[in-house]
Design brief:
four-stranded antiparallel sheet; Alpha-Beta Plaits; alpha+beta; 4 domains
Length: 492
Amino acid sequence: MAIDHAMGAEAGSSEATVSHRCGHCGEDFASRNALFKHLAAKCDPLAAKVKEGKERILFTLGYLGSRYRCSALQNERDEEAMNSVEGALLSALPAAGGPSRPNVLGVARAVRTDRGCHAAESAILLTLRPCVLNSEELRRALRSSEVRLLGPPRSLTLMEKPEANIFGKIYAPRRKSFTVHIPYFALITSSEHERWSTSDPATGGVWFGPVPEDCTSERVHAMLAEQQLVPHEVILEPGRGHVQVKMAEGEAQKALARLQGLRWQNQLLSAAPLNEALAKFEVHRRVRRALKELKGGPNARKGLRSYHNFMSPAPAPGDASAMRALLHCSAMGLQMQQRRGIWTSEDWTAVHFCATDFGPQQVRRMAGALVATSRGSEAMSYIARCFEPSPMNVPAVPAETISLDSFELGPVETDWRPAAQVDMKEAAAMKQDIEQRVRTEALEPWKDFLRSLDLGATRRSAQQRLSSAAERGDVLGARAAVADGMAKVRPS
């Protein structure tokens, strides 16, 4: 890892003579060549491997995408108008001892994201003329941006071969995972909102988790007694990972205060009012059903499906670019959520999609179909119809609510992060910053999206067919279009 010390070597003044310091022994050198000769001869023999012409440097980043055109580098004119994430990185390189943009010989990245999307982690491989980059100076240069270094820049030339091989095909991750952050008010029906929205709801008791699979009612009763709490009834279903406790209203308020954040059975507990938790479970059942339909329905099997209606521009049904397979999809558990106040208007949840690759806008439109069916704008059968050859309108949720959560490189069970020296605390902080940004910036776009659903965003093709049939005098066609675009129905 000597090159990482060298790349973090302190640059001296900006005068004609610039000193470079060896990160191993602290000796200063007047030139980059002198420093590398010293490293190769004494402190870091692997430095002798550096090719004089060029080297590939790995950068691991996280970013808030609100201020950027997209993640991938664009042409100079577009970059001048609005930077990309990669453009922001390249602009910061000279301040850290790196080359200016014209001297960057190549760019490869693990994942591209659209305008407005965020990334908890990302990796970019730049081909540069050999240089000594100062990591701290690069961090300082990026401070005015919303791009964060998650680890030091690393030269593939100077990595051990097994590590370097992980990043040899950085452009082809074996899987990508995206998170869609969704406010609960987008997932509940109007009648549910009326029933559940109250400024002073009765708790009905307390819900808490996670609990281990071998947890027993006796252990729960003993813990509640230790906390001086008196339950009416403890409901513990094996394998569910949580406990429902019915108790008097005043006792439930005490339980919420005492159980939230309590370490028990080697876990930090999360607690919520029982009635709130049961209502959220009702919403999550619909969300999970929609996720199952998106992945392949109740009888899903491994294989490809045509996601043509979930992409923009839409390819032909069955076209190679439309054929995809979701590897995994899931919803955030209650124990991972942060309670804010009146949950129907202030709490958020999330869904996660994982695949080898996604088509353009596929994640946003899958989430759009999920929201449309969960809140009652469409029946659950709408998702199955989206996989049929006929064109369907599938609205895209706001880009500001999407984040690249993770990606995997190299052979199965290989973790690229240790080789890239990712600081996991920095990565965790990046995720928290994304959640905070989403809650503030995506709120109004979500309201706009829901208004478009109320105005029939999923039925525009039916409206077009109705107009066309009316112009032709096609009564049967008009009736079919009306039937297809009937008023909203509750999820089946």
